[in-house]
Amino acid sequence: MERKKLTNRQIRRLAKKYIRGTASAEESALLHEWYNTVNPGTTEVILVDTPTLSREVREEIFAGLQKRIEQEKGRVLELPRRSVQWWHAAAVVLLLAGGIAFYRSLPVPVKKEEPSYTAQVAEEVSAPQTARAVITLAGGRRLYLDSIPEGTIAREGNTRVTKKADGVVYESPADAKEVGYNVLTVPRGSRVVNLTLSDGSRVWLNAESSMRYPVAFTGSSRNVEVTGEAYFEISKDPQRRFYISSRGLTTEVLGTHFNINTYADESAMKVTLLEGSVRVRDTRGGQVMLKPGQQAKVNGGDPDIQVEDKVDIEAVIAWKNDYFMMKGTDIGALARQMARWYDVQVVFEGEIPDRKFGGSISRNVNLSTMLEVLRESGINSRLEQKKVIIL
Known about the structure:
The protein is α+β, with helices and mostly antiparallel strands. Helices cover 16% and strands 34% of the residues.
């Protein structure tokens, strides 16, 4: 990319790539160069992690930024300087007051007052570090993925089950006769698990989710059962359609990419299509065909399946990309996401605040960082071991 003045759109795009670790060296350099020209207290902010710089250099950069004159026009957010927090090992993107601020940690000591309502934290709650998932084999034996080395971990008849760096893979011969079923369970407080089925279809399971599936697909159709949330990339097979059953919903596909969210504690079940086409049916007889970018939604008390157009796909699959994405998310929904991911209890001390959020936050930050970010948007809380109390 040519070194020139960056537009706001280019800045946002580069920031997202940098935070996700996909930016090239040249793109990172451009982002650093832009960062050195802005005042983080009054315009769109990117706090970048620069571990190769000495503490003295980092402190000098921080001090210089505080004095700079606003150079970017058309800014989307004004933050008071007290709001510019420097969290260690955090990568946070947060939308506040209708604007966007990008945060990236710099371990610079900043003096700040301790809020009077903050309780002493007995222990930090870290983001999940491993996939604490369990595979229950057809015979009942359990495989705990976080304690098994990579390689072949089981054989189910002619099907080989292999643990790899990027997930678990089932491999079976074309003439496999097995009809046994395995169950993959991803508990609360576990990282996302990637599973490749015997037909080559790939599935990502979110925390507090499970899937029951055959070790090999042998019939005229391919059938699995899901609870919680899963993202699918289904291999095309014109001879055998793929069916996913989940809490009374059946999603029928041939070959496509889509997301299913049917957590029991959510107000609605949702199937969101990214690519291809799917048919969604429920036990009450309703059915719809989805096109890419559409979402089927089933509310508990609504007899019809609602279809929403132009859904924000990035927000729907943010969990798969290690982000909390809050596009109009209310505090109740965000609390449920936090509870599943950090394996904590979230309770409200009073009435549930009528607030909606936007932007995104890395799911790799510690819980205390997440709560500090919420405090910056006006949601106070305290952490008592494994319980979050929202005030």
